[in-house]
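If your schedule permits, I should be very grateful for your opinion on a structural question. Please examine both parts with care and let me know of anything in them that strikes you as inconsistent. The record follows directly beneath this note:
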Amino acid sequence: MFSQIAATLITLVLVAPVLASFEVEITLIADALIQGSIAAFLGSRLGLASWWLPINLLFSPALVSALSFGVAPSWFLAAFVLLFLVYWSVFRSQVPLYLSSRKAWAAVAGLLPSKAGVRFLDLGAGLGGMLSYLDAQRPDGNFSGMEIAPLPFVLGWARKKATRGNYSLQWGNFWPHSLADQDVVYAYLSPVPMGRLWCKVCEEMPSGSRFISNTFPVPGVEPESVVELDDFHHSRLYVYRVPARQEMDASS
């Protein structure tokens, strides 16, 4: 945002007057490309990831092109509201919406302890697909999930009602939620929270219980096993055994 605002000010205050002094007339789309080039340069200097640079470059040109189509502003508002309801906390959590594949569902079902009443928690349950599948496969289990994004939660809640699922789905942030009574905790988040989440898992979950992370490993921690998923993204499940307190003290 800073790159875009600063580039717009530079274009209006510095570049446009210089071009005008030489009596150079350029089109609006050319103005947008100049602004985008400045924004991309500023983004690179600010240390943004490389994939942000084409976004900074093309944001204003895309906006100018979209306005030329004569699309009613209400469509842009609707798109913004939709994206906000799905990704509203991503700027803070840095965890986008990832949906587990059906092969991930089946693999997780095979990793559950065989004991009756197994307790499973899905951190970031999305649309509730994992919970619905496990509930159908293991009616003896106790399955629950948490989702912070409003729209995925509402859709997951509707799915639970439609299928009469015997699992629970809660809206909210999982960080204050205790993991103390869980046998298995599953997460498909991002690389950002994995170190902090592993500390929470080790502090709260019983020793010998399992933590399963889809795609994103815990940095610096060797998993008990890795399950290769032959799905669209060629994902992996990283399976960790929660160590006993004595083991954690010894390793530290």
